[in-house]
Amino acid sequence: MKLKLNPDARTIYKQILKEIVSKMQLEDSKKYLEKFYPVTDRNEIIRRQKYLKNGFTKVDSLKKHLSGIKRIKFKLKYFSDRILFVEEKNYEKALKLGVCKVEKSYDNYLVIGRSRFDLEKLEPYLIVPECYVQTLLENKRVLESLTAVSQKVHGKSIIPRILDEISKVEEIFLRKKKIEELDEIVLRKKEELNKKIEEVVKNHTLTLSG
Questions:
Q1: Which residue stretches of the chain are H helix?
Q2: At 79, is the secondary structure helix, strand, or coil?
Q3: Alpha-carbon distance 86 to 102, whole Å?
Q4: Is 29 part of any domain?
Q5: What is the pLDDT of residues 119-141, one digit of tens each?
Q6: Number of structural domains, the chain?
């Protein structure tokens, strides 16, 4: 049962919460803190005391890992190599995703090259999974830090499974990145060459006209 606070006590409580929140490094922890509202139940108070006492014993060992944790933001981009076919009722929703060309059809499915993939639901991670894998690979150290924290706090973590899966395609993505970098170099060299050719043609034209 929640404890009713008088105005002064409520003000002090809010100030304490504000101070605690300012020291937190993880956004999800701030939401979890909301569960620690004042209560009158003795058993709940004792349970919280045990929980916090146990947590405090792990603080020092977690510090080095907490600094490496940040929120992972998945960035979507447009792919021109695929077409998303959707039922008319899902057409507007599919367009708003903005990840590839969309066409109306009798069913929901994705076409990449000559391959077709039926879709049970219209979710970006099913349509452009590369974006999610790429983001996870770029945040590999964050995942490793999360694993360490989760294992120390909860004794287990599902993140190692994620790391195992993305490691299987890591080499492919590294090669893809190198190819993209080479493409950029080729494009720059092409632009430089075009400029040189333009200069030569311009100078040659001036010479002839002179």
A1: 7-23, 27-33, 42-56, 59-66, 91-97, 124-127, 129-138, 140-154, 159-167, 170-209
A2: strand
A3: 7
A4: yes
A5: 999 999 999 999 999 899 989 98
A6: 3
d(CA 149, CA 63) in angstroms, rounded, equals 9
- 57-112 per-position pLDDT tens digit: 777 777 777 777 788 888 899 999 999 999 999 999 999 999 999 999 999 999 99
Domain co-membership, 110 together with 122: yes
Do 136 and 185 have their domain in common?
Answer: yes
pTM of the model as a whole: 0.62
Distance between CA atoms of 194 and 198, rounded to whole angstroms? 6
Same domain membership, residue 181 and residue 152: yes
CA distance 45 to 36: 10
- What residue numbers bound the domain in which 98 lies? 78-126
Asked if residue 109 lies in contact with residue 128, where contact means CB atoms within 8 angstroms, the answer is: no
CB 151 within 8 Å of CB 61: no
